């Protein structure tokens, strides 16, 4: 797979990613929380506490829903620290504990695992998992849940540059998510990103660019606690201009977006590095070799850190007993 824009899917799901919190499941006795933006050492300490809690909970025979939440929390923290093998194992255990529980919670966690597998380059598996999550939501009959699953599938196919398939799912999700009062504002904006980007991918540029511009304007009104979402909206607008052949405006917005979304740690950095990878490609294509090398250096440095962490991850996997 050519990982052109994994960040589209990452951002679509970012509103559901919460370190130390499974959504929508909640434990009767929740684990100690870890604040968003916590440093790496604090997150490692929290992981150690959760690993100990998982062992104690299994020994004490905790109910399966509580176990699912513990492992979902662990999976999210492992992923935040680029411990992908550990994250995969924890998410799979959470799913195993949820198999006889709430379908909505099961579909949610399967979607989390799909996101991880896309990051790991396992596109086929990610697609199978997203399709399974959609089927579960369809069986429940929740229109918003179905639309959320369609949005996630659209993001996945966008990341694969399968824009026609992405467009089919994005149109269905857009029709539902833009008109429902219970849908969160960030989810409305996210489907605009996804649909707008898919439209520019099939060169339906007038409508696609209008949606991307509107998403930037909406995000500028409420960018959240940091500049990541605004930077990513600007970046997607630049990428849309690139796909539609306007390299001058693409250059302006890609530079602005990657500057505003710069991040040094965790989930935010994963999105930023995906953006920098594509920005470096754009710079090479447009003849700016020195700038391209600078952008690529950021990517290379980040990948070296991930590779080193992955080796440690494989050598020190978390162990626990199998779900009953």
Please give a structural write-up.
There is one protein chain. This protein has 14 helices and no strands. Residues 1-21, 23-33 and 314-324 have low confidence and may be disordered. The protein has a domain at 224-311: Serine Threonine Protein Phosphatase 5, Tetratricopeptide repeat, CATH 1.25.40. 74% of the residues lie in helices and 0% in strands. It has 324 residues and is mainly alpha-helical. The radius of gyration is 19 Å and the shape is globular.
Q: What's the overall geometry?
A: globular
The H-and-E topology, N to C, reads as HHHHHHHHHHHHHH
- Write the CATH architecture name of the domain at 224-311: Alpha Horseshoe
DSSP summary, beta strand count:
0
- Content-based structural category: mainly alpha
Helicity range of the residues?
A: over 70%
CATH topology of the domain at 224-311: Serine Threonine Protein Phosphatase 5, Tetratricopeptide repeat
Largest sheet: none
- What is the CA–CA distance across the termini? 37 Å
What is the CATH class of the domain at 224-311? Mainly Alpha
- Beta content comes to under 5%
The average pLDDT value, as a whole number, equals 82
**Unreliable residue runs:** 1-21, 23-33, 314-324
Please work out how many helical segments DSSP would assign. Answer: 14
- State Rg: 19 Å
């Amino acid at each position: 797979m050519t990982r052109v824009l994994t960040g589209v899917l990452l951002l679509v799901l970012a509103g559901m990613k919460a370190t130390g919190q499974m959504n929508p499941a909640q434990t009767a006795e929740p684990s100690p929380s870890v604040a968003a933006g916590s440093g790496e050492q604090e997150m490692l300490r929290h992981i150690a506490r959760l690993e100990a809690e998982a062992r104690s909970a299994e020994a004490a025979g905790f109910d399966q829903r509580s176990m699912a939440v513990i492992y979902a929390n662990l999976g999210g923290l492992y992923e935040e620290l680029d411990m992908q093998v550990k994250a995969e194992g924890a998410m799979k255990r959470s799913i195993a504990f949820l198999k006889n529980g709430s379908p909505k919670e099961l579909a949610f966690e399967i979607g989390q695992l799909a996101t991880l597998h896309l990051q790991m380059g396992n596109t086929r598996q990610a697609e199978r998992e997203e399709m399974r999550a959609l089927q579960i939501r369809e069986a429940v009959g929740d229109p918003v849940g179905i639309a959320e699953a369609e949005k996630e599938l659209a993001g996945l196919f966008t990341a694969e540059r399968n824009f026609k398939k992405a467009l089919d799912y994005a149109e269905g999700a857009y029709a539902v998510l833009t008109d429902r009062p219970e849908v969160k504002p960030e989810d409305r904006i996210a489907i605009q990103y996804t649909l707008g980007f898919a439209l520019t991918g099939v060169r339906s540029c007038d409508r696609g660019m209008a949606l991307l511009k509107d998403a930037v304007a909406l995000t500028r009104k409420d960018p959240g606690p940091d500049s990541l979402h605004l930077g990513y909206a600007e970046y997607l607008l630049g990428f849309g201009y690139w796909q539609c052949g306007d390299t001058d405006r693409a250059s302006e917005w890609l530079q602005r977006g990657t500057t505003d979304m710069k991040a040094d740690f965790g989930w935010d950095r994963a999105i930023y590095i995906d953006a920098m990878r594509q920005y470096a490609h754009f710079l090479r294509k447009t003849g700016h070799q020195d700038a391209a090398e600078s952008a690529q250096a950021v990517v290379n440095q980040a990948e070296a850190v991930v590779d080193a962490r992955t080796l440690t991850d494989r050598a020190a996997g978390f162990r626990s007993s199998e779900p009953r």
